[in-house]
Design brief:
The protein is mainly alpha-helical. 73% of the residues lie in helices and 0% in strands. The chain is built from four helices and no strands. It has helices at 4-10, 17-35, 45-56, 60-80. Helix 2 crosses helix 4. The longest helix is centred in the last third of the chain and has 21 residues, at 60-80.
C-alpha cells in the first residue's frame, strides 16, 4: 500500500496511536481508491482533487484532514528521493 512506509515511520505507539489509526482509515477509505494504484511520482494535482471531491462537501473537516495527510505522505516520499 502506498502509505505504508510513511505510516511505519510516523505512527506513535500506545494511546497516541488511536488518532493515527483513524488517519490511516481516512486515507484508505477516501484516498486509496484514487491514488492507491499510482506510483508517488505519477500522482498529480488532479488525482488529489479527485480523492478530495467526494468528501469535501459532505465532510469538510475530514476533507481538510485528508488533504493534510495526503500532503504529508507525498512530502515524505519526496524527501526519500
Amino acid at each position: 500500500m502506498w502509505r505504508n512506509a510513511w505510516w511505519r515511520r510516523r505512527s506513535p505507539a500506545g494511546p497516541a496511536a488511536r488518532p493515527w489509526r483513524a488517519g490511516a482509515s481516512t486515507l484508505d477509505k477516501h484516498a486509496y481508491p484514487v491514488l492507491g494504484d499510482l506510483r508517488i511520482g505519477d500522482v498529480t494535482r488532479d488525482h488529489v482533487v479527485q480523492a478530495l471531491t467526494s468528501v469535501w462537501t459532505a465532510q469538510p473537516a475530514t476533507a481538510r484532514k485528508l488533504q493534510r495527510r495526503i500532503a504529508s505522505v507525498l512530502d515524505y516520499a519526496t524527501a526519500l528521493k
